[in-house]
Amino acid sequence: MLSVIVATHESERALVPTLSALVPGAMSGLVTEVVVADAGSTDATAEVADIAGCRFITSQAPLGERLKSAALSTRTPWLMFLRAGIVLDADWTGASETFMQTASFADTAPRAAVFRAAATASAQPGLGDLIALARAVVAGRKPSPDQGLIISRSLYETVGGHPAHADAEAKLLGQLGRKVALLGAGARRVA
């Protein structure tokens, strides 16, 4: 149902907690594969990915091209993009499943979502979280790539995937604009 794509470069230490947080999703069957899209690391990033059972793709291409290529290599209807060093809250699987089910059955539902930033991570988004997101949208600030991204494959393909820019993750989030929902689970940087 969900392919997770993790961008890495010299990320052996940062990758471990990110992959560990994905285990409950793999155990429940939500995560069907994890693809590590690496920029040619010389540390043990490839070994960490291999031990964890991830598919490892390495390329010197810019980040946007690596992420887009990794996404195109998957076959699931949903994609999740994470950076190495980002850890999702324990309740990320439930929040993600609920979002994907709602989006799949409601034509007007958003087809992309980000996790809440660590500063506001709690069980359910509160009024303050929603106001902060609304202010960010109005002020032109977009969600951060550190919040991860869950996106339907159909929407990802419709918008053309990640652009070839150096700041591809932020550009894609900006392009999605109001099509991005805020999930009840949080994400925080640990490395």
Summarize the structure.
The protein is α/β, with parallel strands linked by helices. The chain has a single domain, classed as Spore Coat Polysaccharide Biosynthesis Protein SpsA, Chain A (Alpha-Beta Complex), CATH 3.90.550.10.
> What's the structural domain tally?
1
Number of strands: 8
Helix percentage:
25-40%
Low-confidence stretches: 120-124
- One letter per element, helices H and strands E, the order comes to EHEHEHEEHEHEHHE
How large is the share of residues in beta strands? 25-35%
* CATH class group: Alpha Beta
Instruction: Provide the gyration radius in Å.
Output: 15 Å
Number of helices: 7
Give the CATH architecture.
Alpha-Beta Complex
Topology overview:
Elements: E1 2-8, H1 12-28, E2 31-38, H2 45-51, E3 55-58, H3 63-72, E4 78-83, E5 86-88, H4 92-105, E6 112-117, H5 127-138, E7 149-152, H6 153-158, H7 168-176, E8 180-189
Parallel strand pairs: 1-2, 1-4, 2-3, 6-8
Antiparallel strand pairs: 4-7, 5-8, 6-7
How does this model look, in words?
The structure is a single chain. The protein is 39% helix and 25% strand. The protein is α/β, with parallel strands linked by helices and 191 residues long. The chain has a single domain (2-189), classed as Alpha-Beta Complex (Spore Coat Polysaccharide Biosynthesis Protein SpsA, Chain A). Strands 3-2-1-4-7-6-8-5 form an eight-stranded mixed beta sheet, with helices on both faces. Strand 1 (2-8), helix 1 and strand 2 form a beta-alpha-beta unit. Helix 1 packs parallel to helix 2 (45-51). The protein is globular. The model is unreliable at 120-124 (pLDDT under 50).
